[in-house]
Amino acid sequence: MAELWSAISAALPVTEAEFPLDFSEKVEPCVVDVLKRCRQQLYTGSGRWRQNAQIILDFSWEKLNTGTWRDVDKEWCLYSYGCLFKVAALCRDDASPATVQEVILTCDLGLLMGAAIMDNILQTIVRILQNEIGKRHSNEKDPSEGVSAKKMKVDSVSVPVVKQALAVPRILCPSLESFMKDYLDPQKPVILGGIIDHWPAFKNHPWSIEYLQTVAGCQTTC
């Protein structure tokens, strides 16, 4: 976990003085005080760090969900600051996979409900965590496991018997004219093959569950 925390802390401002907490008078002074306390604890590593972050999250959540969304003042982007402080506390304290997933979920909420703060630092942290998950998956994956699971799946598939007269024809890359004449206008079913082989998802970076987890992480599952 030390390596992960090192990567995340490197994305943060170097000193407490460089960490921005500038809000208008619309944000109550008591809230700003808690934010400053969280900032101090971030750099000292002491105090009720996670609890204070949760106070910010709970308070700003109420503000975000009071009235209509268009009436929410942009100053309540401080929800993202609460998420950032919570993420930092979690990453420093625990190394479990469940915690990493919770951290990504917290970042997602900060991006959705708050705002892009400090050069979109939450998105930067998500990328760091996705790399960590990718490393863990590659270390834990058993090559033989995937082969045997695939074989079991193939062996268990039952192929239905379809009469040739009722089978839907399959054609490869038809011209637009022939497709319209032979199938579209008479409204005949057909299976088209080879028409998306040039897509980047097939050639440059074939899509798979592992690939989607790498580029999007929990954002695809929450």
Automatic annotation (TrEMBL):
Pfam families: ARM_KDM8_N
Domain DM8: start-end pairs: 52-138
Protein name: JmjC domain-containing protein 5
Species the sequence originates in: Salmo salar (Atlantic salmon)
